[in-house]
Specification:
Length: 209
């Protein structure tokens, strides 16, 4: 019994340190890459033009930080946790390379104009300071929340997996409703998540041979 408690304590301590290491590196590089003044301005598609702006969606948008942190703590199986962690690390790294090589942005002026006189303006101003404009495509909000949903589902926790799936889809939708991303960024975010999951599967499978 004591041995099991000790092993769990070591695992919990290790995953806290690894998660904090990823988070600190993420917070360091994300704003630096997002500050590019050479970003390509993306063009809205017909679908993007038809999607209305809904200011309260920002609450779902910022819950992206919560879904990642809660997932890090909820996954109890050590192999599943390593799979999840490797996947988000690879997705983050791949996105940062893309942001550095091909920085993209969208116009936020129209959104700000819609918020003049609105109590939501303060939250959006805070968001714009923390979420630089040049990290649009692919959407890491979409990629990381999708990986989290897949990881909870794969741990055979169907109820929580369903909640996480709905949550991740809500976050993807919120990126469009807040006019933080275009539909193409969401699609690329899903592709990034899929790629990270597949590469992680190959890496971990090769180590087990």
């Amino acid at each position: 019994m004591m041995a099991k408690v000790k092993i769990n304590f070591i695992f919990n301590s290790l995953r806290v340190r690894l998660f904090l290491a990823w988070y600190l590196l993420f917070c360091l590089f994300y704003p630096i890459l997002g500050a590019s003044n050479k970003a390509v301005v993306l063009t809205a598609s017909t679908m993007d033009d038809k999607i209305g702006f809904w200011a309260p969606a920002i609450l779902i948008y910022v819950s992206h930080f919560a879904i990642v942190a809660v997932t890090a703590w909820m996954i109890q199986d050590k192999k599943k946790w390593l799979f999840w962690y490797t996947s988000i690390a690879l997705a983050s790294l791949a996105a940062f390379v893309i942001f550095a090589i091909w920085p993209t942005t969208i116009q936020r002026d129209q959104t700000v104009n819609l918020l003049i006189g609105s109590p939501w303006l303060i939250l959006y101003e805070w968001l714009y300071r923390l979420d630089p404009a040049a990290n649009c495509s692919p959407s890491l909000h979409v990629a990381l929340s999708t990986i989290c949903a897949f990881s909870i589902w794969s741990e055979k926790r169907k109820l929580m997996g369903s909640i996480w799936l709905i949550w991740s889809l809500g976050i993807a939708t919120s990126t469009l409703l807040t006019k933080q991303h275009y539909a193409i960024d969401v699609v690329f975010g899903w592709l990034l998540a899929l790629g990270a999951l597949l590469v992680t599967s190959l890496i971990l499978a090769s180590k087990q041979r």
